[in-house]
């Protein structure tokens, strides 16, 4: 039992102001929007200022150790808000909440409530418990929960592009990965609720949706699989752009590639994380494909959809990775010619298969060295990819003013590359044609045509 504060007791039956902070992947950002929607229905008012909040929620990520360290640092800072406002309730939600459960409260006394990713409907009840000074923890995982009918409160600022969650959890158990433990088993959201959410977004002026899941290719709602869902969403309107993430290479089917080829508003961009270029490593990672399989998928994409961009994730220094394995990764990157990559040093996560059965035996220095080589390889590939676009014309969906100057705008091409150009008459949400005139490794620069 914690000390009961009378101002805090007020929140046992009343709503106040909620401030939420989100770490981690897009799924987590989507979840924050669901949590806000649930609390709003209980009367809570959303604030952008932690100083005026009665309830602060931190939606956390557990994917790598440094992601967790960031959250611990932030929780220490949030303690000071409590000094100024002792009635303040602080909650940790998301993947770290699921992984650490009551350990979070034990280690960080400022934490009042802990809520796992499948328990968000319970959040008002947990706030009331905390207001009474009681331990408020719910980290039960569910086999069914998809928050299917909850309309998320949209936090993305541009009002043009939105993320739509189509499934939760993951059944793949890659040996390095904590997600199946923090998010539970895979389940798909009923397709009609997805279609309704996208229609609602269109009514509110959105022009682009990204369908989200840890492995979207295994989406299944009775007879509707991922290819069917993609077609249904893309058929809603010809000027709605449709993207999706993430595809697992073992499940990316020819059907999906063919649908991308024949559907103009399905964006020509596939995020296909390789993780490693060594078949031995891929087997240890439990990825269920080989180097050759991955390269074959890339070759098929390039053959069927020649203007498709492909992006990837790479892990440096997984358990027992030799120099030869690492060089296989570098050569795979070059052969696949990824347009962009997220690149990470391997971080051993408790409870995973790697933690139980393997040794984290690549030294920190060597991981850093290998990661730097991977980053240098990708920088060269990204620059080459951008240079190939010079002289070409792309349709760009305008998302906002360029950070550097309000005389310029930025948006994205179908290939998901950022394009910056002179503003002239363009507005956010317009589709414009831009001819690329120059580039950096990260951005294309062009002029309206
Ligand atoms: N479901 C997605 C990825 C989710 S996590 C997929 O399978 O592609 C995002 C990325 O984090 C992964 O692709 C992987 O590259 C990286 N990652 C996951 N666990 C990691 C770990 N323990 N250490 C380092 N990187 C990790
Ligand atoms: Fe993690 Fe693998 Fe699932 Fe992706 S597919 S979330 S890397 S276990
Ligand atoms: Fe996402 Fe991090 Fe959880 S990447 S699924 S928030 S562990």
Shape, per Cα inertia axes: globular
* Major sheet strand order: 2-1-3-4-5-6
Tell how many strands the DSSP assignment holds: 21
Helix content: 25-40%
CATH class of the domain at 6-138: Alpha Beta
Give a written overview of the molecule.
The structure is a single chain. By secondary structure, this protein is α/β, with parallel strands linked by helices. Among the domains are: about 5-140, Response regulator (Rossmann fold, 3-Layer(aba) Sandwich); about 395-449, OB fold (Dihydrolipoamide Acetyltransferase, E2P) (Beta Barrel), CATH 2.40.50.140. Helices cover about 35% and strands about 20% of the residues. It has helices at about 5-10, 25-40, 65-85, 95-100, 100-105, 125-130, 180-185, 190-205, 225-235, 255-260, 280-285, 290-305, 325-335, 355, 365-390; strands at about 15-20, 45, 55-60, 90-95, 115, 135-140, 160-165, 165-170, 185-190, 210, 220, 225, 240-245, 270, 310-315, 340-345, 395-400, 410-415, 420, 430-440, 445-449. The protein has a six-stranded parallel sheet, sandwiched between helices. The longest helix has 25 residues, at about 365-390. FE3-S4 cluster binds near residues 24, 27, 28 and 61.
Outline the secondary-structure elements:
Blueprint: H1 6-9, E1 17-22, H2 26-41, E2 45-46, E3 55-60, H3 65-84, E4 89-94, H4 95-100, H5 102-107, E5 113-115, H6 123-131, E6 136-138, E7 161-165, E8 167-168, H7 179-183, E9 187-188, H8 191-203, E10 208-212, E11 220-221, E12 224-225, H9 226-234, E13 241-245, H10 254-262, E14 269-271, H11 279-284, H12 291-304, E15 309-316, H13 323-336, E16 340-345, H14 353-357, H15 364-388, E17 393-401, E18 408-413, E19 418-422, E20 431-439, E21 444-448
Parallel strand pairs: 1-2, 1-3, 3-4, 4-5, 5-6, 7-10, 10-13, 14-15, 15-16, 19-21
Antiparallel strand pairs: 8-9, 11-12, 17-18, 17-20, 18-19, 20-21
Helix pairs in contact: 13-15
Bound molecules: S-adenosyl-L-homocysteine, iron/sulfur cluster and FE3-S4 cluster.
The site of iron/sulfur cluster has 10 residues, from α7.
């Amino acid at each position: 039992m914690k000390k009961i504060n009378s101002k805090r007791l007020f929140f046992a039956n009343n709503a106040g102001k909620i401030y939420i902070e989100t770490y981690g992947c897009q799924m987590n950002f989507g979840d924050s929007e669901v949590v806000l929607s649930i609390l709003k229905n209980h009367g809570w008012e959303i604030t952008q200022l932690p100083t005026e909040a009665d309830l602060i929620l931190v939606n956390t990520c557990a994917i790598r150790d440094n992601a967790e360290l960031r959250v611990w640092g932030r929780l220490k800072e949030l303690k000071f808000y409590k000094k100024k406002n002792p009635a303040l309730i602080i909650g940790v939600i998301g993947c770290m909440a699921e992984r650490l459960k009551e350990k979070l409260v034990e280690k960080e006394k400022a934490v009042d409530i802990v809520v796992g990713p499948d328990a968000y409907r319970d959040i008002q009840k947990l706030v009331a418990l905390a207001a009474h000074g009681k331990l408020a923890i719910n980290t039960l995982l569910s086999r069914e929960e998809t928050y299917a009918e909850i309309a998320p409160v949209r936090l993305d600022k541009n009002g043009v592009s939105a993320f739509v969650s189509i499934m939760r959890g993951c059944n793949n158990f890659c040996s390095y990965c904590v997600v199946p433990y923090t998010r539970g088993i895979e389940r798909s959201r009923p397709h009609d609720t997805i279609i309704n959410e996208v229609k609602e977004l269109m009514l509110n002026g959105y022009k682009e949706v990204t369908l989200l899941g840890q492995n979207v290719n295994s989406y299944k709602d009775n007879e509707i699989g991922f290819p069917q869902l993609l077609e249904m969403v893309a058929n809603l309107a010809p000027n709605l752009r449709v993207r999706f993430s993430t595809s697992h290479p073992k499940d990316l089917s020819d059907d999906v590639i063919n649908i991308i080829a024949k559907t103009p508003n399905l964006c020509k961009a596939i995020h296909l994380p390789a993780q490693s270029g060594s078949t031995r490593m891929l087997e240890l990672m439990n990825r269920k494909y080989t180097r050759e399989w991955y390269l074959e998928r890339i070759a098929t994409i390039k053959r069927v959809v020649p203007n498709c961009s492909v992006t990837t994730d790479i892990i440096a220094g997984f358990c027992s990775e030799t120099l030869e394995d690492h060089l296989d990764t570098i050569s795979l990157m070059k052969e696949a010619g990824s347009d962009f990559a997220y690149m990470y040093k391997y971080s051993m996560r408790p409870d995973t298969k790697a933690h139980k059965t393997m040794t984290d035996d690549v030294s920190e220095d060597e991981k850093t060295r290998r990661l730097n080589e991977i980053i240098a390889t990708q920088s060269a590939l990204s620059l080459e990819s951008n240079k190939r676009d010079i002289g070409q014309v792309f349709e760009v969906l305008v998302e906002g003013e360029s950070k550097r100057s309000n005389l310029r705008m930025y948006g994205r091409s179908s290939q998901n590359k950022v394009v910056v150009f002179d503003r002239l008459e363009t507005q956010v949400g317009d589709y414009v044609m831009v001819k690329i005139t120059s580039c950096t490794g990260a951005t294309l620069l062009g002029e309206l045509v």
